[in-house]
Design brief:
Strand order of the largest sheet: 1-2
Number of helices: 13
Shape: globular
Length: 343
């Protein structure tokens, strides 16, 4: 792929995302789409109450337009691409984009109910999980129809681990978990956007290694869109991405890793998201296991979960939490690409 196309796509996404924000933020305020802050997190600045949400539309719109432009440029100027491209590759890209957008639609519904009810209670987790499992199962099935029939997972130093029929339910559960994990990181100014900018670049490099130019462009488009969003979202945030944005990003990261059939490398790139969400699961299980029958209260391992809120409770500022988590995400992205290069 010509390098100038790889530069054009994220740059266009960045400019579009940052520009859309100047129009969208006042409009969201006018519509009353404002975030209510969870009082559970005592360290969060009270000034964040009422900040407009659904800002994820900035990078969603920007990344789709930039991706479309990038594909047109690549098909036109990509040399022999038009001779070797097959419909399955384009359909696989479309499947990943639809998967991300369906998750975003579910997040939008959650944001809408939060805004209408003027509290932090959107759609209940059980209500969200049912459509998430359906969407994830449909995506895994779509990849199967598009030629991904392998039920093996590659592991370093081991090779391909054959999972047979168990592969499919495992991948559906993994897709649901990872999408929600990315969603949970959206709790600190600039955090999810910064981490996904870095993850997007890492996934673009991985897609190039796997000879998947469509997903290279998709990853670069989302990375550029997130970077443009950060113009408005870094501390102090003028807008939050909301579940509308974070669910889209979760679907995007999951889609790229699954489309490449690079599950282990996906785990490495998304390791910070995964651990952040895992602290929530561990906390809940431990709290229930240690619950006093009389008081109904249990013990906690972490001061707050997801663990990025735990760092806030320990006195870390939003910028320090964002820098720390994004730094580790960068190391994970480098590690995943090194493993891919050496394998």
């Amino acid at each position: 792929m010509p390098f100038w196309i790889q530069l054009t796509v994220p740059l266009l996404a960045f400019l579009l995302s940052a520009s859309v924000g100047t129009i969208l933020i006042p409009y969201l305020k006018k519509l009353g789409m404002r975030q209510s802050i969870n009082k559970y997190i005592t360290s969060i600045d009270g000034k964040k109450e009422g900040t407009p949400m659904m800002g994820g539309f900035m990078f969603i719109i920007a990344s789709i337009i930039a991706l479309a432009v990038g594909m047109v440029l690549f098909i036109t100027f990509g040399g022999t691409y038009h001779l070797r491209a097959d419909n399955s590759a384009l359909y696989k890209l479309l499947a990943g984009l639809i998967f991300a957008l369906l998750n975003s639609a579910l997040g939008f519904a959650d944001d809408y109910f939060k805004a209408v009810r003027k509290n932090n209670d959107g759609i209940k987790m059980r209500q969200k999980l049912i459509p998430q499992f359906i969407i994830s199962a449909a995506f895994v099935y779509a990849l199967y129809l598009l030629g991904d029939r392998s039920t093996a997972v590659w592991l370093p130093f081991i090779g391909n681990l054959e999972l047979s029929w168990f592969y499919y339910p495992l991948m559906v559960c993994f897709a649901v978990y990872l999408t929600n994990a990315v969603n949970l990181t959206d709790g600190v100014d600039g955090l999810c956007g910064s981490m996904t900018t870095v993850s997007g670049v890492a996934l673009a490099m991985l897609s190039t290694s796997f000879s998947s130019p469509e997903y290279t462009l998709f990853s670069l488009a989302v990375a550029g869109g997130c970077l443009g969003f950060l113009v408005h979202n870094l501390h102090p945030a003028k807008v939050f991405m909301g579940d509308t944005g974070s669910m889209f990003l979760g679907g995007f990261i999951t889609a790229v890793g699954f489309a490449l059939h690079a599950h282990f490398l996906l785990i490495i790139i998304a390791l910070v998201y995964i651990i952040d969400a895992l602290t929530v699961l561990i906390q809940r299980l431990y709290y229930r296991a240690t619950r006093d029958p009389k008081t109904g209260k249990g013990k906690r391992i972490f001061p707050k979960t997801p663990i990025h809120h735990g760092f806030q409770e320990m006195g870390f500022s939003d910028n320090k939490v964002t820098l720390l988590f994004t730094g580790f995400t960068l190391l994970c992205g480098i590690a995943a690409n090194l493993i891919a290069y050496l394998s």
